[in-house]
Amino acid sequence: MSLNSKWESNRTNPRYQTIWKPARQEDQGDFCEAVEDLRNEVDELVIKNKTLDQKLQDRDFELEKLNSKLKRYLEQLNFKDIQIQDLYDCQKKLKEEIACFQRTNQEAGDSNSSKNEKDDLICKLKNTIVNLELQVQEMEETISCWEEENELRNQDLEANKHYLEKTFARMDDVCCKIKQYKIELKKLETENAELRACMNDMQSQQTQMKTCYTELKEKCETMEKEKENLEIENLALQRNLDQLHIQYNHCRKCMTRMKEKFECRDQYTGPSVTTESYTDSTVTKVNSQPEKRNDEKASERNKRVVQKKQKSTQWKSNPKLGKRKSSIKRPLNRSRSRCTKKTNEKLHERKTVVFKIYPPSGSDNLKRYRRGNLGVVCKKGASHNRKLSKPKKSMKMLYQKR
């Protein structure tokens, strides 16, 4: 496929007529191949032009040499022509002198010695004439040879002129093609610049997408970490809920026991102390308080659980630290109920207080409730009953004077 046909096919192609857009890699490869083919052909034409210029310079140099030789031959011919004319003049003069001598010989009738001298002179003159005629013939032959050589050289010069005219025409065509190729190369360079601009835009967009991807990846990692933390918090909350459920069930059991005790005491002494029934409604009332404090406490508990887990992992991972001492101070095992009948009878004489104890929060309180360390209805200010401890801020307690 020639370059012109390829260029015409590219020119008719609608892809090259429209504005350049970011094309595929295959299209970019075809475009680059076409540009490389054009550049290679232009380079070949430039090399041919250089070789033709060198040939023309060599021919001009040869023509100059031939012209210089022709000038020399012409000068020599002119010089020989001048010599021939001089010889003709000398021949004429000699002929005139011979005629004069013959006249003088006839008129004067000189002696034999003079005749012999004259004969010698005549012979010499005849010899010179013969020599001159031979030289003239040789000069004429050389002139004819030179004329033939001149004709052959003129023919060669005419052939060279025709060849040079053809080469000049070809050079003009090549120059026109080179100009067209330069124009087309400029167009291709402009299109290539547009393509490079599009490629730069695409690269900038790609970098932006990469940055966005990295940001999203970081966000995903942070979300995963938050998810893990939330899962840990959820596990802690589930454990706390399980503990609360256990505490609640334990408290209900304790309340049933307390009710049974009060019923037994009322049978002996009579209904002197009013006790409210511990039902689920009371618990629901307490649990239906504002949730802000509960949320804060739950977050604090979760933080404590996470800190404990971290400490435990640190102690497990570092065996050099040694055994870990338990920081929880467990209360002493005490008897379940120390109130006797006498103390119960004395309680009716003075003002009594009824404590409504609800399921507390925290692991310490849970252990305390498991061991039966609950508050009991007792006399206000009784020093012998050590089972009642000071109410903590975290415990929600209600009391009623009667």
Automatic annotation (TrEMBL):
Coiled coil found in the keyword field: yes
Coiled coil: 35-83, 129-247
Record field: compositional bias (Basic residues): 321-341, 381-402
Segments for region (Disordered): 269-346, 380-402
Annotated keywords: Coiled coil
Biased composition regions of type Basic and acidic residues, renumbered to the chain: 290-303
Superkingdom: Eukaryota
Keyword Coiled coil: yes
Record's compositionally biased regions (Polar residues): 269-289
Annotated protein name in UniProt: Spindle pole body component 110-like
Origin species: Diaphorina citri
